[in-house]
Amino acid sequence: MATGDDTPESGRRARGRPRGWHDRTEQNTIKSLDRAMEVLDRLSELPGVSLSALAADLDQSPATVYRVLTTLEGRGLVEFDAEAQLWHVGAQAFVIGARFLRRTSLVERARPILRNLMEATGETANLGVARGPAVLFVSQVETDASIRAFFPPGTLSPMHASGIGKALLARMDERRLARLLSTPLERFTEHTFCDADALRTELAATRARGWALDGEEKTLGMRCIAAPVFDMSGEAVAGVSVSGPVSRVSDGSIDRVAQEVCAAAAALTAAVGGVWPAPAGAGGRG
User: Fold this and answer.
1) Domain 15-94 carries which CATH code?
2) What dihedral angle (degrees, nearest 10) is formed by the CA atoms of 67, 155, 172, 107?
3) Which CATH code fits 104-271?
4) How far apart (Å, rounded) are the C-alpha atoms in residues 227 and 109?
5) Residue 103 DSSP symbol
6) Predicted model pTM
7) Same fold, 15-94 and 104-271
8) What would the pLDDT profile of 223-247 be if each residue is shown by its tens digit?
9) Domain ranges of the chain
10) How far apart are CA 226 and CA 168, in angstroms?
11) Out of 27-41, 82-96, 186-200, 252-266, which region has the weakest mean confidence (pLDDT)?
């Protein structure tokens, strides 16, 4: 019978893990598998690459990389374009990624809300979660407009230059926020917040009004308005946003779009059983 004490500290073996599961030394890793995952990970970042170029990029022999690629090809994780002589990430990689997304109801429940948000604003609606110092976009409903933002699922964007990222940073606990802001903040445009103190001031304003604005901070000519989504503990676990060109997301329309975005974030928070956090004092979670 399970006792609830299957932890390394208790000396009992955790179900689904062998004895010594927390040991990450060389004896408990499979070098060939680790090499294969390195190849797959790098290939997923490229639009298509030749064997020789990929091997050189990874500093591995072409023969080794070829064996990895043909093995992955057999599983559908990579594909080879014989005419162009280029390797690409395969459809099965997307299938596996989609299975990961099914671990949570967040993406599933967000779809109708994102669609309603897109229809209400006429702009592309996005859902993103934090992944280290970046935002990982996990779902999107595109507008039909000819000029539009495009963040396909799997896209990563730096938090400090992202609407969703700033919405999440504004609700982050001080220790984690300080750690993220201790590293240099990359500049993308003249509007990017690269100074930690200036970004903190921006995050305080974001927290106070309930939504974040990316005003051409990542891409000139594009704006993004975002709001946080909370879980049952009142922690910001995701963000909903609308992205579009400044010609449509104009100064005069920002408030209206922000209201729609906040309503969508509140609807998704309720859909996943989340609660809006109680106001906190200065320096705490707000």
Assistant:
1) 1.10.10.10
2) -100
3) 3.30.450.40
4) 16
5) T
6) 0.65
7) no
8) 999 999 998 889 999 999 999 999 9
9) 15-94, 104-271
10) 9
11) 27-41
